[in-house]
Fold each of these.
Amino acid sequence: MGEPASVARLAWDITSGIEAGELADFYRDLHRHPELSFEEHRTAAKLAGRLRAAGYGVTEGVGGTGVVGVLVQGDGPVVWLRGDMDALPVREASGLPYASTVDGVMHACGHDLHVTWLMAAAEALAAARDSWSGTLVVIGQPAEENGGGARAMVADGLRERFPRPDVLFGQHAAPGPVGFYPHTPGLTMSAVDDIDVVVHGVGGHGSRPESTVDPVVTAAHIVTRLQTVVAREVAAKDSAVLTVGQFHAGTQHNIIPAEARLALNLRTQDTGVRARVLAAVERIVRGECDAAGCPVPPEITVLPGHPNTVNDAALDAEIAAVHREVFGPGTVFDFGPVMGSEDISLLPPPGVPYDYWYVTTTPPDVWAAAPGDGLMEKFANVPGNHSPRFAPDPAALVPGVRTLVSAALSRLA
Ligand code: ZN
Ligand code: ZN
């Protein structure tokens, strides 16, 4: 670990030559051409091309559309830098001149910023390779949004085919006036589970419910009783969110369908709470189906989700100190763990520390015009991640390169 002040000076030196206009062009091009999870072919090719030109050994197609660039510069630590590349099935309503040209697909989570930050940090570090020593591994990850990308890269040999990391760094665009770099030591994002439920009833004529077992009524009872799980079974000091995101049943007014389907989304921050809520969901679904007299037990499928994202506390303190040196006092603060989630923690081999922080991206005029007085009130009133009006300020581009460059240099300089 270098001294924060000298690391910060070096980070400024090697990023001072970044051409902000060229960087913004690269970013706007990605924003115009968003690609859904595992379809990031154009984005991956752009990143790979720039890495190759900067001198990285580049492997494409890792875990589908993933890109890995490796730059070995003598002995020293191995640093992994990761950015995710996928867009969302959202119809853009930002009104930006460089809005999405793909109907129904949008970079609504800022992963186009992430790719731009990663690319430019990789270029800056490569251009200044005489000032550091070690190995840089730059990872363009597919499919963060639908949850499969990190797992796919690991299954495709990310940990075996490339130098083993001593540390992993990542960052996410977040609402908040441009110029802040929130860091949270320890738990920073929550675990997420998706749960599919199929209720099997007995279908029949809408005029003769006595000859059926109505799965709509049964599923409605399930939805209502699930609301008691967080309210009545999770302690007030613990956190959990259980949302029924989908409820599908039936085809016509006069038909009682044979089945109903629910899709649940669970967020927790503690493995004990997670286990308790999952058990409660299973108990309630089975109990309601029994009570209704369903002829066949329900199907309950817990899909592979993301675990908690838990920053190494000592590492986070070091990198937060570096970022404070780079950007000045008052720019780095801790807003505590959030109920959002991430799959970055699945990438490194077990035991390898990682740090994941935020870069705020709301244009200052949008922030100033947002109703509300305090930080949290305004926070709730500006377009955030996954909003069709999410419109990060390109002024956050160069700072988001400096966060990555300075974090890498804290190990390599
Ligand atoms: Zn997202
Ligand atoms: Zn995201």
Note: The chain is about 35% helix and 25% strand.
Amino acid sequence: MQKIIILDFGSQTTQLIGRRVRELNTFCEILPYNKYPENDADVIGVILSGSPLSVYAEDAFHIDLNRFRGRKPILGICYGAQLISYCNGGKVESAGTREYGRQQLQFIDGNNPLFKGFEAHSQVWMSHGDSITRLPEGAVCIASTQTVRNAAYYIEEACPIFGTQFHPEVYHTLQGTLLLQNFVVDICGSKQEWSAERFVETTVAELQAQLGNDRVILGLSGGVDSSVVAVLLQRAIGDRLTCIFVDHGMLRKNEFRDVMNDYKGLGLNVIGVDASEQFLSDLSGVKEPEQKRKIIGRDFVEVFQEEARKITDAKWLAQGTIYPDRIESLNITGKVIKSHHNVGGLPKEMHLQLCEPIKWLFKDEVRRVGRSLGMPDHLIKRHPFPGPGLAVRILGDITREKISILQEADDIFIRNLREAGLYDEIWQAGAILLSEVRSVGVMGDERTYENPVALRAVTSSDAMTADFAHIPYEVLAKTSNEIINKVKGVNRVCYDISSKPPATIEWE
Ligand code: XMP
């Protein structure tokens, strides 16, 4: 399949470039700046990302452009543009102060294919400390702003090279998507054949070829990623897929029952295992968050393995790993700051081969694929939920009584978000029981001395960063009233207004 390669020099917005290219129904891969693939037959163009570094600094990331120059069209963005310029005899200098924010293009070469359809004075987003003060030989300036002469340039070659000082991938560059479309579709020749339907079609065929008559095991979590993998695999190999859904006793109210019904409705071959006794007894008295996670992780592997062992002829373990779990983002020292995410220590000794059919997808694409597979909306749009479940939302030790209090409060919160039409706008929401804190309240004529519940709702695009959701006061007020009136043991409700970073989404 045709693809664009995005070489990552460590910019905060590299993933955004990837998303924008995918939105143009074009497949792309984001790779560390020095990992351009050996075999690039299906690569139709290369984009070099921005970076917090200076191209002239000692620790700058440099690459050999000749790996693809002359064979693939190139677009350098910010640092990428500076790098191409610098390596070809141009001059890059500190601009003195960092230029950050919206700018208007004062001059645009409307005949250049990169700017096809652009309006005069189009708004762009700048974020740079260095500028290209002299273009390399053969390069022509194709756009300027009031402060930046070489806001974009062009080198005419068998395969053209473009550089933009501004960031087309950022929302504030109003015609940024058009610029990327001009590059990806017109200049690189993308046939725009990447779509959810096409993905399903090719993935099912690939899975059939890869798996043959083998049997596959999949751990389901109730979340969208593993559910989509289940339906894809079922399309490919039918009942040779066995799914295992473990109830550790710390799921949301009625979740085990509802999700099992959903799975059965989808015709999946699912074994539901109620292992809550084991988990809760092993967690008894444990307060320390990391210790809780370790116990849950260990018990999960134990329970999963015990069930999986019964499927004696299984050869594959399928996982719902998605692309953001795997992208290696660079920090400025060149170290990988986000390493390959893997589902915590699942059975290596079982000698199963890994099958990860959605490992190239972003979350919104997983949802599109789910929709195209005919999965119900409430499954597709379900908020992410942590593996250890309510265990990391009960601060303190875990008991059945606390779980049930939190399940009720959480259920009221989520229902109120749905009724207010806010659920789908929010990345993730839930309630947290501060079970080690008690405060005084008054209910009727009675003094109460009970626990508070904190509500957490965030907006995000990938859970790496998040803002608290700006929920209207009326919705918070209604939720708070309902929780305090209906959930015995709770006499106070707070709303968490921290962003991530520095806070995290989960409290533990
Ligand atoms: P944090 O709390 O790190 O969460 O901001 C980021 C995202 O990851 C989820 N999360 C987990 N998911 N096992 C999981 O499967 C875990 O141990 C875990 N901890 C956090 C969290 O719900 C959010 O979506």
Note: The domain at 3-187 is CATH 3.40.50.880 (Rossmann fold).
